[in-house]
Amino acid sequence: MSLDVSIGGSPVTIDEGTLQIAAVINGIDRLSVEVTSVDGSVRPALGAAVLVSKSVAVLTSSVASPTVLTTTEPHGIVSGQTVTIAGHTGSTPALSGAYVATRTGPTTFTVPVNVTTGGTGGTVARRIFGGSVCKPTERGFQGVGLTPITTAVNALDFNALADRRYVTATIPAGTLLAALQVLVTYLTPYGVTLDSAQATGPTLPALTYDAKKLSEVFTDLETLSGYVRDISYEQVLGMYAPGTIAAPFNITDGDGYVDGDLEVEPGDEGYANRVILRAGTAVQVEETDTWTANGTARSWDFTYPVVQRWYAVYVTPPGGSATLYIIPEDGVGTTLTIAFAAGTISQNVGQTTYVSGTTITILYMAQFPFTVQAPLASTEPTAEQIAHGLWEIAVAAPDCTNATTAQAMAEAELDVRVSATARIVRYATYADGLRPGQIQTINSTTRHISVSCLITEVRARDVRNLMRYDVTAVEGTTSQGSWRDTYQQWSGGGTSTMAAISGGGSPPSSSSSMPTVAYLGGSRLNGIAGDAGTVDAPNHVSVPVRWGEIGSVTVTVSVQVKTSNAAVSVTPSVYDDTASAVAATGSASTSTTWVTQMLTLTRPSAGLTHTYRLQLTGSGGSDDVFVCSHPGVQIVPA
After folding, report:
1. What global pTM score does this model have?
2. Domain encompassing residue 403
3. Each residue's pLDDT tens digit, 12-23
4. Are residues 261 and 301 in the same domain?
């Protein structure tokens, strides 16, 4: 066995006994090593490439396709790993350079070459570290201030590249593979490619990011998918399900692999069989729900807690046009009723049940935070709960505002919590080829354990020119580190600001003529004194209109007004914050019952986006006047 180390593209001779490599699952591998240079020339720059390879001698290559190579000692190669063959002679064709190997035994492996004449000799090398310098420190050799120096080199593996990039993008709902195809483009400048054999993986919800570190985005994918992420020492990005990659060897009493004895530790920290996840923070967010009638149901559940306000509901029969219904602030409309506390919308008594295929769409203000549970209440009690009794844990995801993502997060957390009783096994070995994420069978009657384990940590160090590995493995195939306790890393998939109105946008519907609606605020319960002058409507909401994206449309503001005393009038208006001017003014009304007015906005001469808010003006006196968005800004295709 020999170790070959290069720093910054130049080979170096390392000081014996100084090489250490710490590898962890779903993390960044770290290397430390010391190099003494008599001429003081080894002064690596920050970011210089650090490559470490381990080679063994080759005996023969066989006449076969693929050819089988035999080594003089265990090679530590894992199937799918890239190896480099050098100095091998006599084979036809010549075997030289890089190949993707398949392990067939401790001292045999194949490469995809049709060899018609076997060869002998040479070496096969596999990379055991690849990364870049993060901290070089030099000192005089043996503490003497002369030209010879000893340089302590610390390096991070290629997974650290993900800390250098930030993601501002929406990853559409789809497979894990599709998400990785989007994200690998951020690593292309560093020479990283996506594994050509990357599995399709599970389906993920849409994820939206605004300047979020790429490494944290990968953490999101790990949590949602349960997969292990790695940028290999050969700069290949991949994610794989734990348990799908076998370790190069298993552990059995007396097999000679373990140096010393096994240590087995029972795990019990953090166990739970029900997860209650609280998503979002104290904020109101505009959301859209669409339900499809089945011809029987007359009530539907909101996705999020709904704020008590006026709402517009669109009902579209199969093949028909949308009909707009207004539900007032008390929740009781002429055809539909919202039960705000229960979070449901229902057809009123006496209304004909909607035919199958009818869609019901509402734009509403959702009150965050909200909670989800794993497992779903409909599946309880689970076998795990029956076996151990109910154990709950509450967690928070303050930056998640998407119900689908929140449920996926809760399910991923549950997987980790249920496996928290898994035993932890530690041992040392001189056998090569172990990596975090591999599955290994450990069978020891003396330690009363016979299980499949997931290797989670491998720490290697140079001992008399041999590599000794301290290994940590966890019973089962779930990575205990796959869930990050810092839920602030999540971007969810929703938004915490009022959505802007733009041309072409509309609630999901089969009707392309449905107008886009945005609530402007106001109240049917809280009035303003008539002598207050021109003021903002109660609970007003600023709504942006992207004029630059609007084609031929009519933009109107629908409001209702009334006064508590006919001697006092009320006039609604819409104020343009961008232009610092009134954009539209209604007519003065003295009605003591609600009347509707339509105010039309004129396309501004400058600016692509203008923001508007609702105001009202009383004619005087202490009696209250009222205004309410009914339902608010509407963009109707011309």
Report:
1. 0.56
2. 274-418
3. 999 888 999 999
4. no
